[in-house]
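Postdoc handover notes: sequence design on the structure in folder B. Input tokens:
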């Protein structure tokens, strides 16, 4: 018998809370002195870890709210670091990737110039 754990709204709220201030996504001051790639990599690793933990749950799609909160918080951290707006940073780091389900828009870090890779 296989027991499938469901992703509850309480879990999503608890995982989102470190990235919220007054109920809205907020920048992370601890990452303000890090480079762009380090900021994006940190958020990506944390999100990937949470998603992989709940991947066996049949309703992993419910983590969309967490994705939005973390992505907005990451963009606010990048915007604060560059003293820019979230819209400008989002436009700068936006990439479109072809997937089997059609084109998908993703945030990506800037190339560091040494490897030629964006990731």
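Designed sequence:
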């Amino acid at each position: 018998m296989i027991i499938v754990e469901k992703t509850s709204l309480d879990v999503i709220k608890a995982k989102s809370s470190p990235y919220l201030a007054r109920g809205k996504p907020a920048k992370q001051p601890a990452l303000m002195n890090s480079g762009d790639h380090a900021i994006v990599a940190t958020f990506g690793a944390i999100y990937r870890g949470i998603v992989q933990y709940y991947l066996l749950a049949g309703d992993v799609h419910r983590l969309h709210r967490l994705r939005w909160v973390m992505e907005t918080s990451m963009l606010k951290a990048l915007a604060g670091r560059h003293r820019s707006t979230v819209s400008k940073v989002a436009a700068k780091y936006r990439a479109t990737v072809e997937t089997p389900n059609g084109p998908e828009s993703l945030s990506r870090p800037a190339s560091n110039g040494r490897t030629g890779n964006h990731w």
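Context for whoever picks this up: The two ends are 40 Å apart (CA to CA). Don't rerun without checking with the PI first.
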